[in-house]
Design brief:
Length: 145
Amino acid sequence: MNNQNQLIFALVISAVAFFSNSATAGGTDIESCPSKTFSSFLAAYTESPAVQREFTHNPLKKMITVDAEPEPEQKVVLVERQDINFPLVPNASRRASEGIQIEILEEAKKTAKVKIEKPDTDYQVLYIFKLDRCWFLEEIQDYSL
């Protein structure tokens, strides 16, 4: 009976270790996920460069608008973490002081799209988030000129 208890104990410890390792896979500690509810996650994400750094995919897909002739065009680039300037999303006080508005355009089970714009200007940026154990910024679509 003693050997059987030791075997059960070893299996339990192995299972705990396995799940602990999978929770931090990819360098992100999923225990630090601000929320799986998108609106709560977004509130934490916009206010903290550290949260933005932790919950942004690497490389980050970014679509930019290039001023070209005869018409501006969109170009997709992959940006490595060391080349990203955080914060990506301005916090509430900066948005208020600069007249920037934020709006959740779409929210589904696994994806969400957020628009940040400054009315009466050409500043408009879409942020696409995906849910994978926690929300992660997957793509930025910058339509600003």
